[in-house]
Amino acid sequence: MAPIQRRCPVNFGLSPSENRAGEAPKWPCLGAVQVQASGLDLSGQDRSTNQDHSVRTALTQVATMPFENSVVLVIDDDPDVRASVGRLLRSLGLNVQLFASISAFLNSEPPDCPACLVLDVRLPEQSGLDLQRKLKLANRKLPIIFITGHGDIPMSVEAMKGGAVDFLTKPFRDQDLLDAIQLGLSRDRAQRESERDMADLEERFASLSPREREIMIQVARGRLSKQIAHDIGIAEATVKVHRSRAMQKMKAGSLPELGRMAGKLGLVPET
Q: Which residues contact 189 (CB under 8 A, 6 or more apart)?
């Protein structure tokens, strides 16, 4: 890999530093910037080691985060915060949707891809905590990262109990926000994969005949073929045929796996 060079134009959507009259804008080097009123903070000294480390950290973050086919939703009524966060995330290759209000967010189409929500706590219409409760009641499992300039301990406790990924107080480090976003996207990706797997499992179970379903449940309960045959009044060989067909349709490689599938479907208690 080519060495990382120190170049001040490396910028994460932040404003140029103050410059003298007649001079071109000077973009600050990464690691020595704090943006007023935006909640973004790149703390540190303008030293080669610190700056190179910050750049490497950001590049590593981009390489490891599951950015492809994902989106970060941002709700903040402060236009400066929205713009700064948007530029930061887009500079790292993220898809971003910005909203000035909760109503604008609720009127938008839910993303059909892994997503997380960066949400200001204090908003004009209703609070971010109110939205968190509303999403939970609607069974919309969207990972939330709260940001606020006026947070307190009870507020943060309520947010985390409600399932928030993180609760960041302005001004926060960019890397802290990126870490929380990485965790949020990973959670939502895993949740979506789990839901797809369950939908596929339910579809396979729906393809079974009534007799195959009955025998699958009996097998999952630990009943032997001869016991099942006696209970439902058919030959043991016929039970084995239905059991084999059920395993093929369910794509179960073994009887224990078939039992675990039944547990996931809620047909028997999971073990």
A: 66, 70, 114
Strand partners, 74: 98, 118
In contact, 202 and 193? CB cutoff 8 Å: no
- Encoded tokens for 49: 């080691």
Gap between the Cα atoms of 206 and 221, Å rounded: 19
What does the pLDDT average to over 112-122?
A: 96
CATH architecture of 207-264: Orthogonal Bundle (1.10)
- Please give the Cα distance from 260 to 271 (Å, whole number): 7
66-195: CATH topology: Rossmann fold (3.40.50)
DSSP β-bridge partners for residue 97: 73
Nearest CA-CA partner of 221 in 255, 254, 259: 259
> pTM of the full predicted structure?
0.70
